[in-house]
Amino acid sequence: MEANSHSEQLTAALKKFQCAQCGATGYELQPGDKVKCTYCNTVYQAPTPSKEKPTMFIKKGANVVFGANSVVSVKGGIHIEDGAEVSFLGRLEIIERGDEEIIKAAAAKKSQSNT
Description:
Distance between the termini: 48 Å
Largest sheet: 4 strands, antiparallel
Structural class: alpha/beta
């Protein structure tokens, strides 16, 4: 079975993306394996598959969740087969912070919806 394209693997890894600044779940893939929140414009470095020979294989039918508090380091890369469900819920490193006013407005809106 062929490996997913780089873009498909990145999309799979970001399946449950949530902005750490405003809580939004929408994102745009940016050049250089960056992810931009579509609400507050915060930019993150996306988790990317290594170009080296993979040392971790996630097979078709697997359901793998990297939890919100996970810190996972795989040397040599990951191969994710078509049909595998992989979710990355952990926090991503912020490269460029989004608009402060939009972040504050989103945080206020989110806290109002939680009450």
